[in-house]
Amino acid sequence: MLAFLTRRILGGLVILLIICAVTFMLFYIAPGSNVARLACGKTCSPELVAAVAHQMGVDKPVWQQFLVYLGGIFAGRTIGDNYCGAPCLGYSFHNHRPVLDTIVDRLPVTLSLTIGAVVIFLAVGVGSGMLAALRKGKLSDKAAMGFAVVGGAQQIFVLGPFLLFLFVYSTHIMDVPHYTSFLSNPLRWAIGLLLPWVCLAIITAAYYARLTRSSMVEVLSEDYIRTVRAKGMGQATIYVKHAFRGAMSPIATLLGLDIAVLLGGAIITETVFNLPGVGQLAATSVKDSDLPVMMAVVLLAAAAVVVANIVVDVVYAFIDPRVRLR
């Protein structure tokens, strides 16, 4: 297990290094991407732009710029007259704050959105998928799969405004979605994020329902399931302890990626519901051409995906005894 984790972590670090290099090249040396001009502003004179370029170090060769940026992540670096402590992701061109501080301020919103949505779409999606597999071919099966088809066909930028119009602006059943710290008021935290959670859950649960049903139907036809049935085990024990455990592998894979994507920033969801999370920060940074923030969000999303894949690989060995880590 230790050797496996070491290899996977080292492999993940290499992947992150490659992503960092590619992202740096795209954002900092792409044609038309004048970092000094973007940092200085449109009204700066050519002399001032040159001074800013020297101060930021972007007048150096590209490989030196990248090494300085990479070194800042691990050891910190000096940018102009300011020292940026490790992990240094630069300073925002828009608010002139350290990028890491800006992301940390937005991260609780994205974490809250992720946690609530995952709980709801797992409960609804996996639960309806298991019910459909148990009642294969019956009315409950058809109803669950009908929900999956309709839900999976929705898009957040359509479903979100519809839910806002229906529950907020038309009937006034709910308040406008907002973020309240869980520690300060857990009830207001849940109420303020309920509509975004439901919107994400309707769409995402549809995929889990179909995946759970197909996985359960496949596992229930396996030889080892017939063996435990022949031993006289109860239906509930067979279904939950043996069949569901064998069907969890593809569900765990999809869940790991979904969590990583949400942590990297649910851009459309946070924009539609006006939630000040990492996703909305990413959209704002694109509009403002804030390259350090854009690059930091990309690295955050990549790191979330890499970590999620490592965790999923480890979880495989615990949920499915047929899988062994070597």
Automatic annotation (TrEMBL):
Keywords: Cell membrane, Membrane, Transmembrane, Transmembrane helix, Transport. This is ABC transporter permease. The chain crosses the membrane at residues 9-29, 109-134, 146-169, 189-209, 251-273, 293-319. PANTHER family: DIPEPTIDE TRANSPORT SYSTEM PERMEASE PROTEIN DPPB-RELATED. It is found in: Cell membrane. InterPro entries: BPD_transp_1_N, MetI-like, MetI-like_sf. One of its GO terms (biological process) is transmembrane transport. It is a multi-pass membrane protein. Belongs to the binding-protein-dependent transport system permease family. Coiled coil: none annotated.
